[in-house]
Design goal:
Elements lengths: L4 E4 L9 E3 L2 E3 L13 H10 L3 E7 L1 H4 L5 H15 L3 E5 L15 H10 L7 E4 L2 H10 L2 E5 L13 E3 L2 H11 L5
Parallel strand pairs: 1-4, 1-6, 4-5, 6-7, 7-8
Antiparallel strand pairs: 2-3
Helix pairs in contact: 1-6
This protein binds magnesium ion (MG) and zinc ion.
Length: about 180
């Protein structure tokens, strides 16, 4: 039987980003990995409500040569363990690579949904940037925008806008009720 999933962006959704000139960047050391407030409880609640927890993350600094893929994998494994995620899926590419996984493309969501037998119509995608919202909509999920006030374009038409993941949890659970 297929299940709902929460497709969660990583930096700025689960853990604190490093903000430079109003824009978010991934942590560059294990010491910089810091969960955002309420994230552990939010993940636990979603999991208890029957959601798969799948982190989908663009890490273009791998393609740009400024982040070590092994370090990214280490941070991902740590988050997976801390939050009880089912998996963390990474796009290591940049725009020029023309891959099908870099958000706003829905590739990571669609592939993961197949692996975990996810019902996309009951699922949600949560993120702090327009690429997250766009990817979630393209994949056929509901979308939540975490507005962290960055100096960049806001996403068009998310289904819900919140200040953090925890605030979105009751809505995510309520909207995933199976049709009757
Ligand atoms: Mg983010
Ligand atoms: Zn990619």
């Amino acid at each position: 039987m297929s299940v709902p999933a929460a497709f969660l962006d990583r930096d700025g959704t689960l853990n604190a980003p490093v903000v430079i000139n109003g824009r978010p960047y991934p942590p560059e050391s294990a010491e910089e990995l810091q969960l955002l407030p309420g994230v552990e409880a939010a993940c636990a609640e979603l999991s208890a409500a029957g959601f798969r927890l799948i982190c989908i993350t663009n890490q273009p600094d791998i393609a740009r040569g400024t982040q070590d893929p092994a370090f990214v994998a280490t941070l991902n494994a740590r988050l997976k363990e801390l939050l009880g995620l089912d998996e963390v899926v990474t796009c290591p590419h940049d725009d020029a690579d023309g891959c099908s996984c870099r958000k706003p493309k829905p590739g990571m969501i669609l592939d993961s949904a197949r692996r975990w037998d996810v019902d996309l119509s009951r699922s949600v995608t949560v993120g702090d940037r327009w690429r997250d919202v766009e990817a979630g909509r393209s994949a056929g999920t509901r979308t939540v925008f975490i507005d962290r006030g960055y100096a960049e374009r806001a996403p068009a038409g998310p289904d819900l806008t919140v200040v953090d993941l925890k605030e979105a949890v009751p809505w995510i659970i309520a909207t995933a009720e199976p049709p009757r």
